[in-house]
Structures are given as C-alpha cells and as structure tokens.
Specification:
This protein has 100 residues and is of the alpha+beta class. The chain has one domain (2-96). 38% of the residues lie in helices and 19% in strands. The protein has four helices and four strands. Strands 1-2-3-4 form a four-stranded antiparallel sheet. The model has no long low-confidence stretch (mean pLDDT 94). It comes from Paenibacillus nanensis. This is YneQ.
C-alpha cells in the first residue's frame, strides 16, 4: 500500500511513465516481506527496453521489473534506493521521506 503522496504526484508519475520517460516516485510503504523498510521508490518507464537498460546501468537486475499493467517499474529500497536518489539529484524525495 502506498501512502504519503498526492493524487497529482501519482498522476504526474503515470503520465511520465506512459510517455516512455524514466520517472521516479517515492512513497511510504509497508510490506511484511521487507521488515524495517518504510519507503520505496518506483522507477517507471513504459519502454521496457529503456527501463531494462537503466537497470543494468545502475547495477540492478532487470528480471525484477514489474512489467504488469500499463506502468512497468522497478522497486528501489534500502541502500540502493538512497544511492540512486542521490545520483539522480532527487534531494527533495530524500529529505521528504527521510531516506539515508
């Protein structure tokens, strides 16, 4: 379940993904499979080849892309999430969700 974001933020992310852009959306998240993790960043792109290439360039396995529905994405959590958000200069998301 996602929380801590507005409908406008979700809409903007979906629109960017649909246009084939690499788009980032961070939100609060709880999943018992990942104890201690409280945020996730969804890196989405409707162009699966482009998203798979992005994953490889960032040392991520593209086999973990969630290719379901119309908004394919890769979920970033933990240290890799913080590392990539810094590299992408998404400092607002880091500060807002207290990611370190």
């Amino acid at each position: 379940m996602a929380f801590g974001i507005s409908r406008d933020e979700m809409r903007a992310w979906k629109e960017a993904v649909a246009r084939g852009e690499i788009a980032f959306l961070t939100h609060y998240w709880l999943d018992p499979r990942f104890p201690g993790m409280r945020t996730v960043t969804k890196v989405g792109c409707s162009d699966l080849d482009k998203l798979a290439s992005w994953c490889r360039q960032n040392g991520l396995n593209p086999n973990y892309i969630h290719a379901r529905a119309e908004y394919p994405h890769f979920d970033l959590i933990g240290q890799k999430q913080a590392e990539i958000l810094r590299r992408e200069k998404l400092f607002e998301q880091i500060a807002r969700f207290r990611i370190e």
